[in-house]
Design a protein that fits this description.
The chain is an alpha+beta fold. The chain folds into three domains: about 180 residues, Threonyl-trna Synthetase, Chain A, domain 2 (Threonyl-tRNA Synthetase, Chain A, domain 2), CATH 3.30.980.10; about 250 residues, Bira Bifunctional Protein, Domain 2 (BirA Bifunctional Protein, domain 2, 2-Layer Sandwich), CATH 3.30.930.10; about 100 residues, 3-Layer(aba) Sandwich (Rossmann fold), CATH 3.40.50.800. Helices cover about 35% and strands about 25% of the residues. It contains 18 helices and 28 strands. The chain has an eight-stranded mixed β-sheet, sandwiched between helices. Strands 1, 2, 3, 7 and 8 form a five-stranded antiparallel β-sheet that branches. The longest helix is centred in the N-terminal third of the chain and has 19 residues. It is globular. It starts with a helix and ends in a 9-residue tail after the last helix. The model has no long low-confidence stretch (mean pLDDT about 95).
Length: about 600
């Protein structure tokens, strides 16, 4: 039976360490796990500075080791022996600390090691490790991996500790998979939303404003506003009510909700200049929406209650993890909270699923999607609520997934402590997977805030809260869409939808007439009345990713037509002015992904 790709990656981390050990005997090993798409290993090289050009020699050495078809052998020793070995033989403080931590946290009495042994029985390398590993290195195709890059990494992620040198490697089952990943990464670099965001003037990152706090330019605000209005249009006829809540609140609110106990280090503190009162910028909208529900006397006839708020929350993400729009500190969630009875969960989830399907179909992301149905694990002590309620909620989510034909997988142990959830995974245009929409059942907050409505018997009954987000966050979704479309947005969300391009000054008046007609039907249109030649005007329009350029010259002016150039497909056609306006309006209103000249 072939080893899993994760096992191969873990084994390659050991091969990397063996190669480094042979080339640089003074280097001290730290840790080397398998990760998504590959592996890494952290080393302390002391005063020696490892550079990118050294990777070629290390990779060559690794391939030589693979050719020897060494095998992995596992053995154990006592904790005392292992610590003595790490201290006195290896003189490696990192391994000593790892062993001592395992004793403190897990109470281990023995330590497992893996050693590499040649076909002739010669031991070449060993390391503290739990495994697993491939049985023999011949299971790994030497063309299926490559060393990737070098980075700095603090020991244990602590900036007060030693800075180590991390060597990253890529690894897959086959060379074809490795090549495909490299190609995908090259394409991703071309689509980088941070680069396109600057080029298309969508957003600005300012050191004076602060890391993780992007500013939207007018073009970016158009994109965001179109998405936000579309989201509201999908909700307003399904019984949702728009609400608004402030950006900060007293700490007491988050003590009641439990966020202060779990998220206080990730929350921003605000002190009043006059009142001297202490507030927190809100990290989530949920506690605020609990207060809205609590301020009403609802009965079972009113249920469900559905709140919708595209609101900005604030989280003190680590500076090194911030990235353009996809990882920020000011996060605008298209948030929604539903308060319902357990018996209403299935119907409400089905309604949310219909919104998700329509939304992501519009953006061309439904192909290849899947859904994680996250339910409880075996240890029931970690979860809030009775077995009966959990069984009902998990059953309702699964029934809704089945009824709506969702491509779902039941994942044990991945539920939140407050309830089960559905997490939707979508692939973008170049095959990268993103977790975006989510539906979560929550028994925790209604309990903590003592929420209730009056049931048929005149008694107080606690509602279930369903948290749902369709796009996840508007900033992150916008960053993903910039890359998904490579900056070439569909007509309906494109900041500039049409540009009129007169061939020369003699046709400016007709060009402005065309512009007037376009604006009359609500098109975001402009005219290039510069003195540039036609070729440059067209290049400028293409570089700005304007979906359509309408070229007008003498022939078009006399016939009241336009020469239409589809920037996305490169197709061209002659159209009457009335016909092109009608087609543009239809494409915009249908939120079509395909262009009218495709």
């Amino acid at each position: 039976m072939s080893a899993s790709v994760e096992t191969k990656r873990h084994s390659l981390a050991h091969v990397l360490a063996q190669a480094v050990q042979e080339l640089y005997p003074d280097a001290k090993k730290a840790i080397g796990p398998d990760i998504e798409n590959g592996f890494y290993f952290d080393f302390d090289f002391g005063d020696f500075e490892l550079k990118e050009e050294h990777l070629r020699d290390i990779e060559k050495k690794m391939k030589n080791i693979l050719k020897q078809n060494q095998k992995f052998e596992r053995y154990e020793m006592s904790v005392a022996e292992a610590i003595a070995k790490a201290k006195n033989v290896e003189k490696n403080p990192y391994k000593v600390e790892i062993i001592e931590d395992l004793v403190a946290k897990e109470g281990i009495t023995t330590v497992s090691y893996y050693r590499n042994v040649t076909q002739q029985g010669v031991e070449t390398y060993e390391d503290l490790c739990r495994g697993p590993h491939v049985e023999k290195l011949s299971e790994i195709d030497e063309q299926s991996f490559a060393l990737d890059r070098i980075a700095g990494a603090y020991w244990r992620g602590d900036s007060e500790r030693t800075m180590l040198t991390r060597i990253y490697g890529l690894a897959f089952d086959t060379r074809d998979e490795l090549d495909a990943y490299r190609k995908q990464r090259e394409e991703a670099a071309k689509r980088d939303h941070r680069v396109l965001g600057r080029k298309l003037k969508l957003f600005t990152l300012s050191d004076l404003v602060g890391s993780g706090l992007p500013l939207l330019q007018p073009n970016g605000m158009i994109v965001r506003r179109e998405v936000e209005e579309y989201l509201w249009n999908l909700h307003k006829d399904r019984g949702y009510l728009r609400v608004w809540t402030p950006h900060l609140a007293k700490e007491d609110l988050y003590v009641t909700s439990g966020h202060a106990g779990h998220y206080l280090e990730d929350m921003f503190v605000v002190h009043g200049g006059t009142s001297k009162e202490k507030f927190h910028l809100k990290p989530m909208n949920c506690p605020h929406h609990m207060q809205l529900f609590a301020d009403n006397q609802f009965s079972y006839r009113d249920m469900p209650i559905r709140y919708f708020e595209p609101a900005t929350v604030y989280r003190d993400e680590k500076t090194g993890q911030l990235s353009g729009l996809t990882r920020v500190r000011a996060i605008t969630q298209d948030d929604g909270h539903l308060f319902c009875r357990v018996s209403q969960i299935r119907e409400e989830v089905s309604s949310i699923v219909s919104i998700i399907k329509e939304f992501y179909t519009t953006f061309g992301l439904m192909e290849g999607y899947w859904v994680s149905l996250s339910v409880r694990g075996e240890d029931r002590s970690k979860y809030l609520g009775s077995d009966d309620v959990w069984n009902l909620a998990e059953g309702a989510l699964e029934e809704a997934a089945q009824a709506n034909g969702l491509n779902y997988r039941r994942v044990e142990g991945e539920a939140a402590f407050y309830g089960p959830k559905l997490d939707f995974m979508f692939k973008d245009a170049i095959g990268r997977e993103w977790q975006l929409a989510t539906i979560q059942c929550d028994f925790n907050l209604p309990n903590r805030f003592d929420l209730s409505f009056v049931n048929e018997q005149g008694e107080r009954e606690q509602p279930v809260v369903i948290h749902r987000a369709i796009s996840g966050s508007l900033e992150r979704f916008m960053g993903i869409m910039i890359e998904h479309f490579a900056g070439r947005f569909p007509l309906w969300i494109s900041p500039e939808q049409v540009r009129v391009v007169p061939v020369g000054e003699a046709f400016f008046d007709y060009g402005r007439e065309v512009l007037s007609v376009l604006r009359a039907v609500g098109m975001r249109a402009s005219i290039d009345d510069s003195t540039d030649n036609l070729g440059k005007k067209i290049r400028n329009g293409e570089q700005a990713h304007v979906p359509y350029l309408l070229v007008v010259g003498e022939k078009e002016m006399n016939a009241r037509t336009v020469a239409v150039r589809d920037v996305r497909s490169g197709n061209q056609a002659d159209e009457s002015l009335d016909a092109i306006v009608s087609k543009l309006v239809t494409e915009r209103e249908n939120k079509s992904l395909s262009s009218l000249l495709a």
